[in-house]
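Write out the 3D structure for:
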Amino acid sequence: MQKILVGSIIGMVVGILFGASVVAPRLTDATIHRSDDDGNAVVAEQIEQTPVVVAQPLSTHSNASSVQWNMVSAFPSSLPILGSLPQQLSQKIADVSNGDIAIVFHEPGTLAPVGELFDAVRSSAIDAAFTAPALAVDKIPALGLYGSVPFGPSPREMLSWLYVGNGLEQMNAIYQERDLYAVPCGIATPEAAGWFRGEITNVNDLNGLRMRIEGLAARTAEKLGIETLSIATSEVYEALKTGVIDAAESSLPSAGTALDMQGAAPHYYFPGWHHRSTLLALVVRLDQWQNLSPIQQYQISIVCGDNVRESLAEGEAHQF
C-alpha cells in the first residue's frame, strides 16, 4: 500500500510539473485578479509569460555548395556486383544527401579509357572513378597490396587490415602523394583462376598459352611460360570464342556467368590464386574531397560503407 501511495504522489507531482512546463508556456500574457476585503475585484499585477520556443527539425541539407561529379566506372553496368555497385552509389548518395550530392554514373570507356582512369582523374578530365586500386599496379606497384597479391588476404582479412591495421591510411598516403583521395566503396570476393579452352592437368600445360591476365598476376604467369595479354572485359568472350586467346582471368564467378564465358571456354578453375580479395574504391582529386563539407564527406563514406557490406554479402552468396 505504501508503495502504491508513493507512486501515486510521484505521478501527481510529475503531472503537475509536466502541465506547468508544457501547457503554461502556451498561454498569452496574463493578468492576475484578486478581491479586496470587501469583495471588490482589483488588478494585482501583470504577468508576462515566457514566449513559446518551438524546436525546428534539423535540416538534411548541408550549408556547403551542391556537388555534381561525373564518375566513370571501370566495370560495365551489366556485370553483377561489380557493375551494380557504382550505380547504387549514384542512387543512394542522391537520396542520403537529399539532392546535395550528384554522382553521375558513366560506362567504361565513355569519358576516359579504363586503363587511363587514374590519369583522367588527376588531370580533371573526369571528376571521379569507380575502380579497383590494384588496377593501377603497373603505375603504382604498392597498390597491388589492395587486390593483386598472389595467395593474398581473404576479404575478411583485407577489411580487418584496412579498417583496423592502418591499411586505409597507408592507401591514402599513396594517393595523396599524387593529389588524389580514395574512399573504399566495395570489395570483390575471390576470383577464379580462369576460363580455359583446353583442360589443364599440370603446370606444364600452361607453357605457351595465350592468356588474358593483368597486373602482378601477369608477371607471375609469365614465369610459367604464359603469353599474357591485356584485353577489355567486354572483348574477352569474343577473343576466347575465336581463339585469339586460350584462356582468360575474368573476375567473379557470377560475372563470368553473366558474360557467358562457359560458352567460349568450358574449363573453369576455382578458386583463383591471384585475387583472393579485391578492394574497390571511389577515387577523386584530393582538393575535391577537401572542398566538401564534413557532412558531405560523411555521407559519401557512409554510402560507400554500405556498398562494402552489400558486395561482401552478395559476392559470397553468388560464388557458385
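The radius of gyration is 31 Å.
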